[in-house]
């Protein structure tokens, strides 16, 4: 069953069209990796799905309901959560405070402070640390945990591994694997690392200049094919 249905979605910034008539679906419990070069439209797409950016045309249907024109906070209440690029934590607040502030208007569901700390064990000893003092990996884990505190059905994560050390990336992905394997979470991830995307995702969608140029199950596509689509060439 499709949890998310995107139909002919177009969105832009002023005269610049960043997302061009995109159509795809995400099934409940599926992990989809969204890949593409910088400027391909990935961040604008996620922000439009989350309601942080307005669609010019097309539709976004979540759990059978058209949410195209709903503001972001109402989409959160329906179960859509965005982990934005750059994490955007409250720097003067502690890890625990960053998590709790997101949970104040959460949907009913299983995610509590304690459960988030169990899913991201690296955060337990950091509960009293201010957001601004955390490493990139710690900030990313906190940002994902903050989104989980809203009890989402669909988690949108922008630039999972950008700017993180290999060790931090492994830790973040280990926690994400816990969400998908144990909790059946539905994820759409923007990922620059093609090898990682093919390893963790059920399906890969490659975007070029605002359009989907490749969509395939990750076990039926090669890295060379994704790379070719990534750069808009026939082969590499």
UniProtKB/TrEMBL annotation:
Its GO biological process annotations read: L-amino acid transport
Q: Which Gene3D superfamilies match?
A: P-loop containing nucleotide triphosphate hydrolases
Q: Does the keyword Hydrolase apply?
A: no
**Which GO-annotated molecular functions does the record name?**
ATP binding; ATP hydrolysis activity; branched-chain amino acid transmembrane transporter activity
Q: Which InterPro entries match?
A: AAA+_ATPase, ABC_transporter-like_ATP-bd, BCAA_Transport_ATP-bd_LivF, P-loop_NTPase
Which UniProt keywords are listed?
Amino-acid transport, ATP-binding, Nucleotide-binding, Transport
In this protein, which residues make up the domain named ABC transporter?
4-234
Question: Which stretches are annotated as coiled coil?
Answer: none
| SMART domains per record | AAA
**CDD domains in the cross-refs:** ABC_TM1139_LivF_branched
Similarity comment: family membership? Belongs to the ABC transporter superfamily.
The record's listing under PANTHER family reads: HIGH-AFFINITY BRANCHED-CHAIN AMINO ACID TRANSPORT ATP-BINDING PROTEIN, HIGH-AFFINITY BRANCHED-CHAIN AMINO ACID TRANSPORT ATP-BINDING PROTEIN LIVF
Q: This chain belongs to which protein, by name? A: Branched-chain amino acid transport system ATP-binding protein
Q: Which organism is it from?
A: Petropleomorpha daqingensis
């Amino acid at each position: 069953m499709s949890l998310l249905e995107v139909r002919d979605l177009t969105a832009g910034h002023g005269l610049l069209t960043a997302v061009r008539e995109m159509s795809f679906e995400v099934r409940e419990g599926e992990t989809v990796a969204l890949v593409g070069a910088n400027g391909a439209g990935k961040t604008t797409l996620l922000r439009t799905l989350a309601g942080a950016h307005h669609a010019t045309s097309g539709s976004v249907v979540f759990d059978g309901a058209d949410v195209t024109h709903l503001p972001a906070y109402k989409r959160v209440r329906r179960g859509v959560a965005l982990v934005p690029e750059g994490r955007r934590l409250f720097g003067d607040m502690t890890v625990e405070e960053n998590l709790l502030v997101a949970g104040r208007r959460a949907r009913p569901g299983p995610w509590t402070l304690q459960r988030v700390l169990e899913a991201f064990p690296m955060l337990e000893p950091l509960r009293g640390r201010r957001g601004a003092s955390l490493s990139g990996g710690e900030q990313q884990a906190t940002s994902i945990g903050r989104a989980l505190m809203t009890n989402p059905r669909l988690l949108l994560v922008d630039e999972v591994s950008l700017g993180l050390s290999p060790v931090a990336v492994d830790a973040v992905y280990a926690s994400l694997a816990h969400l998908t394997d144990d909790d059946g979470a539905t994820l759409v991830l923007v990922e620059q690392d093609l090898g990682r995307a093919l390893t963790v995702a059920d399906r890969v969608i490659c975007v070029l200049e605002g359009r989907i140029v490749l969509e395939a199950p990750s076990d039926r596509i090669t890295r060379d094919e994704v790379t070719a689509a990534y750069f808009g060439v026939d082969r590499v």
